Amino acid sequence: MTAILEISGLTKRYASGLVALDDVDLTINKGEIFALLGPNGAGKTTLIGAVCGLVRPTAGIMRAFGHDMATDWRRARARIGLVPQELSTDMFEPVERAVAYSRGLFGLAPNPAHIEQVLRSLSLWEKRKDRIMTLSGGMKRRVLIAKALAHEPDLLFLDEPTAGVDVELRRDMWRLIGAMRERGVTIILTTHYIEEAEEMADRVGIIRKGRILMVDDKAAMMKRLGRTEAVITLAQPLAELPAALAALTVSLENGGTSICYRGGDGTGKGKAEVAELTKALVRAGIDYTGIDIHDSSLEDIFVDLVEEQEVEGAA
Fold first, then answer.
1. Which part of the chain is the ABC transporter domain (predicted)?
2. Does residue 203 carry a pLDDT above 80?
3. Domain locations in the chain?
4. Fewer CB in 10 Å around end: N or C, the chain?
């Protein structure tokens, strides 16, 4: 794989003493969709701002497309697009002019055909002559996306791109991301909708208090940290687990009315073990009235990992 963004030792410390980024190392590969997940205040937006030139790092090295972003940032930044979290644009400008102007800021020649294609892909073409101030919140969000795509970036940052938007825009957004990926554009996104990251991302990074906790392929992360949970409701409560179940990863809970299994991984091993558990119950003559099985989602893994770090930090 070809690395197009390399971050080493990136740190941002404010005068107040707040450490927003703490020795971050991260490599992004060409053509991938990378999801950066973390709770509010974790450092996601600060990291994006550092790469996009909006935040000056305290320490660290960043290279994009082979360019040192401290000494050759103009050439690197020309290939990077950003859809910010906040709605900030020239409200008095017509949509088409504002998007075309964004392209000109990067020194590119006018390309009406490209601007039209971008506006149409975001259902903005019919609004192209309207002033931005007259648009709905969802339409203003679409304008931000169009402005970020105006100069045809090779690396696109999406900071909470679908937060607070309607279902239609969310659908259009992910359709557009899929098309861009097919053209080889690399996409880094932050999102509170973890199911979107689970569906779209190739790799996932988890950040908390400015530190990267984990970066891995989504499938590998699910396999390594995923698990299966099963609750078997018994027809009659038990005082203790029978010896026949001693070798299995189970516990007796809810006053002896349930047998709970927690184990396996993201490969389906857990479901096979739950099947063995039910067979063992039948052999032991233990009747049950229901089984509730749940496989870990990416959100479950994210919550567990963040909570685990919080407990360790408090210890």
1. 5-234
2. yes
3. 3-222, 227-295
4. C
